[in-house]
Specification:
Blueprint: E1 2-7, E2 10-12, E3 21-25, E4 29-33, E5 36-38, E6 42-48, E7 58-60, E8 64-66, E9 71-76, E10 85-91, E11 95-96, E12 100-101, E13 111-118, E14 121-128, H1 139-151, H2 156-162, H3 167-173
Length: 174
């Protein structure tokens, strides 16, 4: 089921426009009957996780072109697990180009995303950037961090720590 169905081509972030042009997708999939071009200085915002605002990506019946300087901004809503994969762009006529990941793909103090490209699809995968104990200073913090890390995916306390935004906030949690 499509959030929006666009007949014809879609271009956003066109160089002739001043400022920034963004496309945000949440709660559904955008279908483009034609070609998609994403220009420099534009941002495609996509939400991952199991929450209510998770995006369904863009499906293109033609070709998708991502020009240098086009950004992919990813945020999360709800729980994510290492290795979770999300399709952000699927083009029947192929995908050319690559996104610059906003913030280098880092989403929290402990995880981020990497972009995966194949001839017709752009996906993102959730990756670990560091262990909980990597951000702490005292022996008690190390023990606490290691204990919490051992709980693993699916544990609500583990998920809460995983989603802490900064290393400073994480240190306070331990």
């Amino acid at each position: 089921n499509a959030l929006a169905h666009i007949g014809g081509n879609l271009a956003f972030g066109h160089a002739a426009r001043s400022g920034r042009s963004d496309l945000a997708i949440a709660n559904g999939r955008v279908v483009v009957d034609g070609n998609l071009s994403q220009y420099a200085n534009s941002t495609y915002a996509y939400t991952i996780g199991d929450g209510p605002s998770v995006g369904g990506g863009i499906a293109v019946t033609g070709a998708a072109t991502i020009l240098d300087g086009a950004q992919l901004a990813v945020r999360f809503d709800g729980a994510v697990s290492m290795g979770d994969q999300f399709v952000v762009l699927d083009a029947d006529g192929g995908v050319t180009g690559a996104y610059a990941l906003l913030n280098g793909g880092q989403l929290s103090a402990f995880f981020g995303i990497d972009a995966l490209y194949d001839p017709n699809t752009v996906s993102i995968v959730v990756t670990s950037s560091q262990d909980f104990a990597d951000v702490v200073a005292t022996p008690n913090q190390v023990a606490t961090a290691e204990g919490l890390q051992s709980l693993g995916s699916g544990n609500p306390l583990y998920g809460t720590i995983l989603n802490i935004a900064t290393e400073d906030e994480a240190r306070l949690a331990f």
